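Work Package 4 report. The design task specified in the project plan requires that, given a folded chain encoded as structure tokens, an amino acid be chosen for each position. We show below one input record used in the internal validation round.
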């Protein structure tokens, strides 16, 4: 609009002044006071903000995007199944790799090439704090592993001391490593670039918090049983694919201005399909120990256990009004056989369909704030890793909280945890624990 306004003859003598700064300010003031200019701006903004849905795009462009996304999706699915086949540890490594890629993609948004050329050490500090966060968060799993290994030894004091050194020093080591990074940052402060360096320091910490700390719950879900990683992941994948397909063929009503291609038709279709998948998915894997069994260490041994009761079919009586309705239809059904995990899965499906998409909306708003279409170009047709994992991180965090709150509240302390703590005791204290446990079990008639 400004070039058109500048071409008009000035209405006041003051607008002909050669002072460019003053002229620009007057033009802006006149534009603000002129209702016609406001109307033009509003109409232009509305046109620019109007979402162009997939159904309104040229057919050739739509189908090209469709096939690119489809091929990339099947490729990712094949790679995911290959990693899944290798077990818990490979999945945990996969999560760490995804975190590193997401961390890199988000950091790139804050980089300023001119400032980066003048400031030394930013790249090193970014990844240093990332590694320290990984060490601190994932060290918990290794601590449990070393506790178990200590008990398997001869329990000599020197051996226990050696094996549990990592476990006992974990928090101190983590803090010390962070302090080293903090000191390096202060030493690298350069006059004239303080604002950029402190902004980047804060950006790095927030990114670490959002990426490493929150998504570490996904890794913990894996060791609770691959099922608790596989179920939420497939719920998000199912929701994403069916939302795209529903919107591709039927979408006409925009869902949110933050993500123009998302439609109400896609949202509703995806919700229905996600609930159906959640209900039937447990029936495919409930009797596979490698999928449903937890793993309390980082050894390469395949997980095995007595399958938990939530993965076994149980009989449930139907409510009276449903029984009556079924009887009217000519059937006599008073109970159904379901697994408790199916009801848990349906609840997770509700979160995956209604709340998890807000992780995607958050990421969309984030990209719009920085005026980028995607976080990266790692995955053809999908964008970057962050574009694919935005909902997964929120979903993984919810599953971790839900699992501990409603699924295994009575298993908050595992046998491995108890044995690991016993391993830290002296030989006399271990004998005392053994004697007390033996007496208690004898009184209860268990031995």
């Amino acid at each position: 609009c400004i070039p058109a306004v500048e071409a008009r003859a000035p209405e006041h003598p003051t607008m002909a002044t050669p002072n460019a700064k003053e002229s620009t300010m007057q033009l802006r003031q006149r534009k603000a006071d002129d209702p016609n200019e406001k109307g033009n701006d509003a109409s232009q903004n509305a046109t620019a903000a109007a979402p162009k849905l997939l159904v309104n795009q040229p057919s050739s462009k739509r189908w090209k995007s469709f096939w690119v996304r489809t091929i990339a999706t099947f490729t990712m699915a094949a790679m995911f199944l290959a990693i899944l086949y290798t077990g818990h540890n490979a999945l945990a490594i996969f999560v760490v790799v995804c975190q590193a890629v997401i961390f890199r993609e988000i950091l790139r948004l804050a980089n300023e090439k001119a400032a980066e050329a003048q400031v030394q050490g930013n790249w090193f500090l970014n990844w240093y704090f990332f590694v320290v966060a990984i060490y601190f968060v994932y060290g918990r799993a290794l601590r449990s592993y070393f506790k178990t290994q200590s008990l398997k030894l001869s329990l000599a004091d020197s051996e226990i001391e050696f094996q549990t050194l990592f476990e006992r020093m974990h928090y101190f080591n983590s803090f010390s490593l962070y302090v080293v990074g903090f000191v390096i940052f202060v030493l690298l402060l350069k006059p004239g670039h303080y604002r950029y360096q402190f902004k980047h320091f804060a950006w790095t910490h927030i990114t670490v918090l959002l990426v490493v700390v929150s998504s570490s719950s996904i890794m913990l879900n894996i060791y609770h049983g691959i099922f608790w990683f596989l179920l939420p992941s497939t719920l998000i994948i199912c929701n994403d694919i069916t939302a795209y397909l529903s919107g591709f063929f039927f979408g006409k009503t925009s869902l949110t201005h933050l993500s123009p291609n998302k439609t109400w038709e896609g949202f509703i279709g995806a919700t229905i399909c996600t609930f159906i998948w959640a209900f039937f998915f447990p029936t495919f894997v409930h009797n596979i120990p490698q999928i449903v069994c937890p793993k309390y260490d980082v050894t390469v041994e395949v997980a095995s256990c007595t399958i938990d009761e939530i993965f076994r079919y149980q009989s449930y009586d139907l409510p009276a009004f449903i029984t009556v309705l079924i009887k009217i239809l000519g059937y006599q059904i008073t109970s159904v056989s379901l697994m408790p995990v199916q009801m848990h899965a349906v609840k997770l499906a509700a979160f995956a369909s209604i709340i998890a998409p807000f992780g995607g909306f958050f990421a969309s708003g984030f990209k719009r704030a920085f005026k980028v279409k995607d976080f990266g170009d790692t995955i053809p047709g999908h964008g970057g890793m962050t574009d694919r994992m935005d909902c997964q991180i929120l979903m993984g965090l919810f599953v971790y909280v839900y699992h501990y709150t409603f699924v295994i509240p009575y298993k908050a302390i595992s046998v491995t945890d108890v044995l690991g703590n016993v391993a830290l005791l002296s030989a006399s204290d271990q004998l005392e624990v053994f004697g007390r446990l033996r007496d208690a079990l004898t009184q209860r008639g268990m031995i």
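The CA atoms of residues 118 and 192 lie 10 Å apart. Validation will be extended to a larger panel in the next phase.
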